[in-house]
Amino acid sequence: MATKIPLYINGEFFQSKTTEFKNVVNPATQEVLAEVPFATPAEMKAALDAAKTAFKIWKEVPTPERARMFLKYQALVKQHHDEIATILSKENGKTFADAQGDVWRGIEVIEHACNIPSLMMGETVENVARKIDGYSYIQPMGVFAGITPFNFPAMIPLWMFPMAIACGNTFILKPSEQDPMTPMRLAELFHEAGFPKGLLNVVHGGKEQVDFLLTNPDIKGVSFVGSVPVGQHVYRTGTEHLKRVQSFVGAKNHMIVMPDSNKSQVINNLVGASCGAAGQRCMAISTVVFVGESQKWLPELREAMSKVRPGAWDDPEAGYGPVINPAAKARIENFISTAEKEGAKLLLDGRGYKHPTLSKGNFIGPTLISDVTPEMTVYKEEIFGPVLLTMNAASLDEGIAIINKNEFGNGTSIFTSSGAAARKFQHEIEVGQVGINIPIPVPLPFFSFTGWRGSFYGDQHAYGKQAVRFYTETKTVTARWFEDDIQHTGPANMTIRLS
Ligand code: NAD
């Protein structure tokens, strides 16, 4: 019988009393790795009670002490880096190298959380009026919740709870039910680092458990990363219940290729950025816009993509892994069929890909679709598979206009050797994360992860300074100090009277 994944509440790992479980499956083999419980209402409440109680103590712990705990946590996660990456690869399907990157990007956020004393510094202005000073403190708010997707089961939980907890809050994490073993390992290491009980609580489930978190008045804010429809539901429900919500959702990321760019660099980067992680990255490049003469490079791009093949996580020859589940495979294959019906050209068709030994894997071959127009379903919807669409533009202006008209604004890039073209693109493009000769421009944690337009709902982004603002309140003090009234009666019993 498969192992049952525990809940982590109030510093204890224990089995849920629920009767509702879902299998956690290796997407390359369909082997059942574990069963994940859907937490009962009483267990959800227990997680909330634990987080509320812990907040009273944790918010008083000095910031340098909080930072020191995160230094310990960083060391532990780093020490277990490859072990976590192995768990991640098995349940998510991504290659070991991709899984290592997933864990590493999370470790970098923990490192950022270790800077919390300087990140939480307020501001001061002396003499805002005569003998009156103005200053502000940044204070934690209480219990936050995080709801995370399947595609980065280490990095995305680590975007959230280290920053929220370092700020002095407590946290309830509801990770994806499709690959919850990785976040549970992160919770075990959190426990091992010696954090007080109740700071981090991990519950499992789906809509019912998420709705508990969205509607309960004792939860101050919710961080969500996932698909568009669920992200809209989370944003609407959470804000309707008067919470802060940050909701990172879908994407359609374009790369502009200028004719003055380096052809082999462009082709290599496009293959990795579109098919890497089976296209299941919110920052994957899913559309390339060839400007002018660069359109002639399409046959070479096709040739390069045709050489990539998917495989199991531990196959060193595999360019990428399977997609997460059979339903995702069917959905992606359906998009490819629809593109053909709507008049696009299938230059490479990954439907029905048969792996030589893993016949049950959810594999899709690399897919290249040209002659795509903005009205086509395949362009309007997020595909989230190893599928690259191509479009043509006569000029950089036309390319920029195509991107700015798209509903999403998560990431984009330009390949060019012209500083002027790069500067124009950087300035005019209405997208949060911009790469110049970089295909997947994910910012490091001292910046913030900044989706725009249809890729994000809310007003403060993930990690970086904006996360500190999301997870805290600012208290502004305006103080009148009556210097003449200060009574000096000696250092031992000095009293200062404020009026
Ligand atoms: P998903 O929306 O299916 O699931 C995300 C989370 O929501 C999971 O924890 C899931 O259990 C929960 N959930 C699912 N259905 C729900 C419902 N009806 N009500 C409440 N909660 C529900 O997303 P996914 O398939 O796991 O992840 C892929 C999506 O995430 C893609 O759209 C991708 O673009 C997006 N994503 C966005 C970013 C970003 O930063 N913008 C980053 C990574 C992934």
Task: Characterise the protein shown here.
This protein is an alpha/beta fold. 37% of the residues lie in helices and 22% in strands. The chain has 16 helices and 23 strands. The strands form six sheets. Strands 15-16-17-14-13-19-20 form a seven-stranded mixed β-sheet, with helices on both faces. A hairpin with a 2-residue loop joins strand 2 and strand 3. It is globular and about 80 Å long. About 1% of the residues have low confidence. The chain binds nicotinamide-adenine-dinucleotide (NAD). Nicotinamide-adenine-dinucleotide (NAD) binds next to helix 8 and helix 9.
What distinguishing features does this structure have?
single chain, binds nicotinamide-adenine-dinucleotide, 7-stranded mixed sheet, 6-stranded mixed sheet, 16 helices, alpha/beta, about 500 residues
Secondary-structure blueprint of this entry?
Elements: E1 3-4, E2 7-9, E3 12-14, E4 21-25, E5 32-37, H1 41-58, H2 63-79, H3 81-92, H4 96-113, H5 116-119, E6 124-129, E7 132-140, E8 143-147, H6 155-166, E9 170-174, H7 181-192, E10 200-202, H8 207-215, E11 219-225, H9 228-240, E12 244-248, E13 253-257, H10 263-275, E14 285-291, H11 298-306, H12 326-341, E15 345-348, E16 367-370, H13 377-380, E17 387-393, H14 396-405, E18 408-409, E19 411-415, H15 419-428, E20 433-436, E21 452-453, E22 456-457, H16 464-470, E23 472-480
Parallel strand pairs: 1-5, 8-9, 8-11, 9-10, 11-12, 13-14, 13-19, 14-17, 16-17, 19-20
Antiparallel strand pairs: 2-3, 4-5, 6-7, 7-23, 12-22, 15-16, 18-21
